Amino acid sequence: MTEAEFLRTNRATFDAVAADYAETFRGELAGRPLDRALLGAFAELAAARGPIADLGCGPGHVTAHLAALGADAFGVDLSPGMVAVARQAYPRVRFEEGSMTALDLPDDGLGGVLAWYSIVNLPAEQLPVVFAEFRRVLAPGGWLLLAFQAGDESLHATEWFGHPVSLDLHRRPPELVAELLGQAGFAVSAQLVREPDESSAEKGPRAHLLARTA
């Protein structure tokens, strides 16, 4: 089967910026107590039901945070460059290459799925596909936590960290994402939208949805 163009371009982009991205974001959770609280609550809920997969894990700092909380957490990322950076930084945590559109994971095997700003580079038509994959790999009563930029616009980047890239970023209304989750078999338990952190380069509000397999 021919690989979709967006997967090829996303992989190439994140391979190109992997080292710079890791250096920039490695310590971000230290200054974000609300993010840590959300991740802590999710880890407590999900780890009781099985392993947690951090899908689109990037350089692995959030996966490592979950593992430090005592969760059986592992990371999956499309970019071999990101996976290599994650493995080097956190050698005791498992990281694998893979795509959210077709996960190499068994049915009903996970207690939790985390997609921490990793659905923002997916075309709209791929969201139902990806949410169906999330539902497939989660055990009954399993938990999903999404974080993404809230809004209703798409941006295209041709340069990032000084590297030429081709990357689309999609801001999405939380109510739309919640509706799609419902269609995929999830029940949304909590929604949070926060304003951008003034101490960082964030632009626009951030949305977080916590959902459970229905």
Walk me through the structure.
- The chain has 214 residues and is α/β, with parallel strands linked by helices.
- The chain has one domain (5-213): 3-Layer(aba) Sandwich (Rossmann fold), CATH 3.40.50.150.
- It is built from six helices and nine strands, in the order H-H-E-H-E-H-E-E-H-E-E-E-H-E-E.
- The protein has helices at residues 5-25, 33-47, 61-68, 80-89, 127-137, 174-183; strands at residues 52-55, 73-77, 94-97, 110-116, 138-149, 154-160, 163-170, 186-194, 206-213.
- The strands form two sheets. It has a seven-stranded mixed sheet, with helices on both faces. A two-stranded antiparallel sheet has the order 6-7.
- The radius of gyration is 16 Å and the shape is globular.
- The termini are far apart.
Short characterization:
The chain has 214 residues and is of the alpha/beta class. It has helices at residues 5-25, 33-47, 61-68, 80-89, 127-137, 174-183, and strands at 52-55, 73-77, 94-97, 110-116, 138-149, 154-160, 163-170, 186-194, 206-213. The N and C termini lie far apart (32 Å).
Helix/strand order:
HHEHEHEEHEEEHEE
**Uncertain segments of ≥5 residues (pLDDT<50)?**
none
CATH superfamily: Vaccinia Virus protein VP39
Number of domains: 1
Strand order of the main beta sheet, please? 3-2-1-4-5-9-8
Can you tell me the CATH architecture? Answer: 3-Layer(aba) Sandwich
Helical proportion, percent range: 25-40%
Proportion of residues in β-strands: 25-35%
Can you tell me the CATH class? Alpha Beta
Head-to-tail CA distance between termini: 32 Å
Briefly note the structural class of the backbone. alpha/beta
Count helical runs.
6
Number of strands: 9
Radius of gyration: 16 Å
* Overall 3D form: globular
| Major sheet details | 7 strands, mixed
Mean pLDDT value: 96
Write down the CATH topology: Rossmann fold
